[in-house]
Amino acid sequence: MADPVVIPDDSPLGEGGEDVEMEGTGETTGGAGEGEENALPEDAVQQPAQPIAFLDYLKSPIVQLNIGEGVEATTLSAHQDLLTKSPYFEQACASFPDPASLSNAPPMVPAKQKREIDLPEADLNAMGGVLEYLYNGEYFPRRVGDTLETHPSIPGVDESGDQLLRHAHIYNLAESFHLPSLKSLAHSKIHRTTSTARGEIAFARHVYKTTDPTDTAIRAPIAAFWGTRSHKLRHEAEEEFRAMCLEFPQFGFDVLSRVLDQKEKGKGGGSGPAVGGAAGGASDGVGVTVGATPKTGRKRARVSTGG
Fold this sequence. Notes:
Layout: H1 54-58, E1 62-67, E2 74-79, H2 80-83, H3 87-93, E3 116-119, H4 124-136, E4 143-144, E5 147-148, H5 162-176, H6 180-190, H7 197-210, H8 216-233, H9 238-247, H10 249-268
Parallel strand pairs: 1-3
Antiparallel strand pairs: 1-2, 4-5
């Protein structure tokens, strides 16, 4: 049986992780002999590179990854040639000795030749997801169409925000390790995770604490979500919402900006503030229809636990 072919190298995907449709690949027609004048000699035509068999990756040296610090420190192991699909790890592994030079070395390898990479700030659970992606091209839970696969270990509703936080941690690591398609994949899973107001606050706190202020790809949906729902959802997690606004004034400003934008759009459209409350389409005064799910860029609506 032939060795299975490893997944292609990491490359950016379209929004939400979908493949990007390439242009200019349509079939062209021409007369007989067209293009033959400038054709290269047969022996000068570059042959396509042979795909690397997955088994060849597994033959590469083992690298130890030291995750965390102190009593919580944990060591993970991975094959070097799979790690180096990440430019970050490729640079880190460049200082390691050539495996061929160690073939005749004594059994005791000097400390300076150990293949170790320290990642004291990395989240262990998220790092497991990164390695799973490097080996398999996906990480648990996998995407299934517009949803995520279900499993008894994953609650249907992310009450605590743990699932959102795991995807956010993986998003951060993908940014650090220069893995754009993993970053896109994690981002798409964030928008396919059903959570509550408290879970959303925990997620928002992590994002505003760890991401660059210019990273609108992950920050803008948070501001849009709370800007269109804060008048209702803040009552489900009022203390957490207040603490979040005080701890991260930028969050409060972003949410307020969204609320004001919605009011302006409502007035501009001739549907000024109205006193709502009746089911089935009354305005809530900020340009949002009561009973409808505001568009925030998320694939699935959040779950309200309020009465």
